[in-house]
Structures
1.
Amino acid sequence: MTTTAPGYTFDATLDRSPVTMDQLAELEASVLWSDDDREALRRAGEILVPQTEQILDVWYGFVGGNAHLVAAFAGADGQPSGEYLGAVRERFGLWIRDVCERDHDQQWLDYQNEVALRHHTSKKNATDEVDSPAGYVPLAHLIALIVPITVTIRPFLANGEPDAAAVDAMYQAWFKAVTLTVALWAHPYAPDTW
Amino acid sequence: MTTTAPGYTFDATLDRSPVTMDQLAELEASVLWSDDDREALRRAGEILVPQTEQILDVWYGFVGGNAHLVAAFAGADGQPSGEYLGAVRERFGLWIRDVCERDHDQQWLDYQNEVALRHHTSKKNATDEVDSPAGYVPLAHLIALIVPITVTIRPFLANGEPDAAAVDAMYQAWFKAVTLTVALWAHPYAPDTW
């Protein structure tokens, strides 16, 4: 497992998120986040990180099979760009690790803001220097993808944990963390009514 | 179970949704929606609709216990308005039924647009003629509430169905439908990048 990738700037000096730690705490309350979820996700990380490539194969298979989703990865010729898909894939793998392992501190919050901007017109295509006709990831699909990014993770959890209740706990924690992340990534789309 | 409520205008002549049926089909693909989910939700409706008041008790208990959520129901004095909470509650109950039973046709899509506008600055407080300082439901919490609205439904499904696999199927279908709905309700918040 790589520990960094081009464009992965979690540990860099980042712009401050417009979302405050107090607002983050409210969002955590809205998704029923608890210390038990943090524990469960750390355990999930031990199981999921070694399976990162297989998980990405499932997700990329799904995106590749849906023209309206792969459109976000169009290159200058309007066709899916292998280079762009590959560059994002590396960071997506690190995202799996980060969801499981990182604390929700100011640095984490600031990086969520950076990633949010990279989905939005503000910064899309800049990190990978792609001349893409896709100027943003549509908000509707950012939200909708909570489902496949959640439900596809369960069999990977079950691969590493025989106890169904423990799998459930990790699965719920993953669901909460993914939804929380999407809520944060929605900020640039509606800064005044977020 | 009531079949209508003040402000419930599903069957009225509604403004056309800015979302097309083709866009709806793409969103359905993004949430992995299938005919099996429609079937599972119809069965879920048989189980959930008779438990509507108990489900609403759980949801309202959660909202009432979180100051940042109940703030959406503030009346003119800034305090939670019992009248406003009650009026929304009636329609929320009908929403449970509609999630389970309604086809995703043009009329359904148009009503999702109407409800979306009622969360947004466009129309919030108008239906119930409330003079509320809360001008919109924050987009972040609209997204975040996918979690509690999903995970709290499972025990109600299990109350009416002993087979765990059948409960799972209904639960996944509910999760997909709720996420799809939130994606649609996000439209007024970011019409240009939706």
Note: Chain A has a mean pLDDT of 97.
2.
Amino acid sequence: MDQRIRSSFARQSMMQTLGAEIENIAPGNVVITASILPGSRQQHDVAHAALSFAIGDTAAGYAALTLMPESSEVMTAEMKINLLAPGAGDLLRATGKVIKPGRRLVIVTAEVHAVTGKEEKLVALLQGTMVPVSA
Amino acid sequence: MDQRIRSSFARQSMMQTLGAEIENIAPGNVVITASILPGSRQQHDVAHAALSFAIGDTAAGYAALTLMPESSEVMTAEMKINLLAPGAGDLLRATGKVIKPGRRLVIVTAEVHAVTGKEEKLVALLQGTMVPVSA
Amino acid sequence: MDQRIRSSFARQSMMQTLGAEIENIAPGNVVITASILPGSRQQHDVAHAALSFAIGDTAAGYAALTLMPESSEVMTAEMKINLLAPGAGDLLRATGKVIKPGRRLVIVTAEVHAVTGKEEKLVALLQGTMVPVSA
Amino acid sequence: MDQRIRSSFARQSMMQTLGAEIENIAPGNVVITASILPGSRQQHDVAHAALSFAIGDTAAGYAALTLMPESSEVMTAEMKINLLAPGAGDLLRATGKVIKPGRRLVIVTAEVHAVTGKEEKLVALLQGTMVPVSA
């Protein structure tokens, strides 16, 4: 499972572009981090909302994949993001979780924290639906 | 207005990273395009969902800004995206529209189409809330 | 199709409780109205958000059903509602539309208007996902 | 606070129509229950999605109100609901929580469980935005 997700992640060029890395993989729970690169910002020089979306959506998708049969891949059907605070800090950390697995639909959430030294601040909350597709 | 939005857009480094450009600005309606760069893809080599989100959200935000007082800037409070089809083609085009302007909340939508030659296909639909903040 | 939807609607006791009625059924487009009954209100005596949700969701669901095989029924997987204005007037009218039909997921929207005499005001916008289930 | 919320709740006729009751009020956390009345059902005789929405949205709104100044009332700006399982059982219980309070926007979630005897099953998950309005 771990290998399968790392291999899929490595093929997502957007993740490299944004400097994202997998921090942890556990059943139903995947953590992805990304530095707030100079090229990932909005007009006030903090992380663009799309960075929180990108790593939150990806963490949630792989969390879903950990609970799917080996022959499956995963696609986002829909995702909602509430932005709670500016994405300022050393890096963003997204924790994706499965709320309800299913054969046709997997309901997921993700929390995105901005990390500055030892401080963590919740900056975005995502809730959405992943669908398994045959690989 | 046109100048103000182009200047704000130019300060969003994420837009340059993703190769996004403003195609049109009209009151309550902004169009942004982005090539599907080699670095903007997911594991099946089509556009990452975060690319549709990034340009859809940004087009919707600037559409809202066109109807705000000059002293305002705009922030995304929340955004929901439904992904309808893979983002495959020459480029993605996001059209952001204001559904209801307001002093405290501006309700917006965006459609994202994948463009291949003269063909356009709807690949994502966004609905969300923008809030004015003092510049 | 018309008969099948009217028969399903008649079995939804919530629709009777809320005084909802089918106004029109066309392929991919269903209209449902509801008076703002004395028992359907929130604390300021206008329509409760749940009334807009109830008829918007139901109109969108039946719009999806018009494009499904006869052996299907429809369930809401997820629905997002933005509330734009208080639901004040003679009645609410929800127009549900299919944005993208599909074998596994049907993407829908609904607009809810408050109607006062000949005036109509957009009070809610919904965007969501319907799934076909075998009857 | 407790008195203020109970008095507001009592003025929401929709809550009486649906048989909803306040079970608990704590800072940032409100619980509302509702029997699945004969008049609250969809075509398969389980709770209509609008019942989960109604009590989830209301629990989340009052959870937000517990953290607002006394002169405020609360309105739902937007709410997203994912439906996880049919609403079958003795009653539904909605637990609304504040994720992030704020002067202009309050981010909330709600979980809705179907309760059958001592068993509880998560049937819906909501995530949304409440706005304070002057009373």
Note: DSSP finds three helices and six strands in chain C.
